[in-house]
Amino acid sequence: MSVAFRQYPDPHNQGEFHAGGSLRVVPAREERRAGAAPQQIYVPPGWPTEVLPPGAPDWETSAITWLMDQCPADYRAYPVLRRHPVVLARFAAEFVEGQIRSSRQALATARPSLGEYVEHAVLDQAAEAIQSEGARLVRVRRAVMLVEEALRGRIFLRKM
Predict the structure, then answer these.
(1) CB–CB of 104/87 below 8 Å?
(2) Superkingdom of this entry's organism (predicted)?
(3) Is the overall model pTM greater than 0.90, yes or no?
(4) Could you give the number of structural domains in the chain?
(5) Are 58 and 146 in contact (CB under 8 A)?
């Protein structure tokens, strides 16, 4: 039995919602159709390009390296995070979520707290920068969630 990733939420509520999509269990008989050619490794939209597909040789090493890049640099000092990538993925997800909350808070308070100290044009540029960073962080959050699911053993299958 494996789990298939659906890019969009399941309108019939037959699967578990996850990372912007839904998952459904694929029965073993459906997975092993007689005469079916072996499937190529599939990664869903949003999978980080720096991480090899799950199941590829050294994919976990590439996942660890990428996840470390999403965390504070000091996390590299803790060998336990390299030895247990699923723990690293969970910590990375929490860290990225915190960054998203912080960037939204910064955007909400920038004008009232800085309005009398910098020009209006500077505030506009700063708001644009933090909005761009917020959008990037949302993409990173999805990628971290996908990597975490793969580290937990999820198998992503292309929906035909």
Answers:
(1) no
(2) Bacteria
(3) no
(4) 1
(5) no
3-state helix, strand, coil in the chain (%, to 5): 55, 10, 35
The tens digit of pLDDT for each residue in 22-60 reads 444 444 444 444 454 455 678 899 999 999 999 899 999
State which residues form the domain around 9. Answer: 2-151
Note whether residue 158 is domain-resident.
Answer: no
Compute CA distances 71 → 40, 68, 75, 137, 147, whole Å: 31, 5, 7, 12, 14
CA gap 112, 3 in Å, rounded:
48
- Distance from C-alpha of 23 to C-alpha of 13, rounded to nearest angstrom: 10
How many C-beta neighbours within 10 Å does residue 151 have?
21
Cα separations in angstroms, 43 against 21, 38, 52, 92, 150: 13, 15, 9, 20, 10
How many helices and strands (H and E) does the chain possess? 5, 3
Phi/psi class of residue 54: alpha, beta or left (left: φ > 0; alpha: ψ in -120 to 50)?
beta
> Distance (Å, rounded) from C-alpha 62 to C-alpha 60?
5
Domain assignment of residue 129, yes or no: yes
Residue 121 covered by a domain? yes
